[in-house]
Amino acid sequence: MNPFVDGAFEAKFLTGDTYSSQHASAGIFSRMMPSLSFYSRLFLGPVRWLCARASKGLCDDTAWVYASAWVADLIERMGCPIEIEGMNAIEAVDGPCLFVANHMSTLETFMLPAMIRPRRPVTFVVKKSLTTMPLFGPVMCSRDPIVVGRTNPREDLTAVLEGGLERLRKGISIIVFPQHTRSREFNPQMFNSIGVKLAKKAGVPIVPLALKTDAWGQGTKIKELGPVKVGMTVRYNFASPISVTGQGKEEQAAICQHIERLLGQWQQLDGSNA
Questions:
Q1: What is the H or E stretch that residue 128 is in?
Q2: Which end of the chain, N or C, is more open, meaning fewer C-beta atoms within 10 Å of its C-beta?
């Protein structure tokens, strides 16, 4: 990683429409003990650094992006190449938009800021527990996210619509994961239309996003601390923006089709971190 420069965005993913890792190789320690290698570097590196800044009120956008790119560097050091397509779509609309994506692992939460924020202001819809976690809670709160409880769907819809409108009017785009939880499998029946509803109400476009990030797997006891698979490719694909017309059923179907099609292709290429 380059040294952090206060007020300047890390440009790791400012590479035009695509990004493809040039140097993604794992050392002996990473190959022998991948999870220990990755998590020790993660928590002693970008997580500790960003949490320390947040505790001092210094977790601004440039620090957020820097830590995000640092995590991407760490996953590449596990021999996991990163392939990103369609980043021009991030800047293809004049005003704010919604990024509606499947949710596979913790990795995308860490990595997406480095792709999107240097191009436009952005925040997340997150579950409440992420804002109250020891150490990391202040980081997430500093991002002014839309917070949902994940226990009452009606309350969550109200929170997303009201909080989303407020942020979109400020010019802040929003990343939405409409699944109830992270999953390697994509089930359109479990992919709710909350992103489409917000886009329709706010009159903003949607950028569909398909991702495959199960190189960072899910844990059995602690979901965020799953096995790390050396050499597995990490993939993102941003589709062209779409506008919501009518009831939004066609747009919801188009988002699901984009995700299903690419996950099917990637599964054939890479397998899964089961």
A1: helix 128-131
A2: C
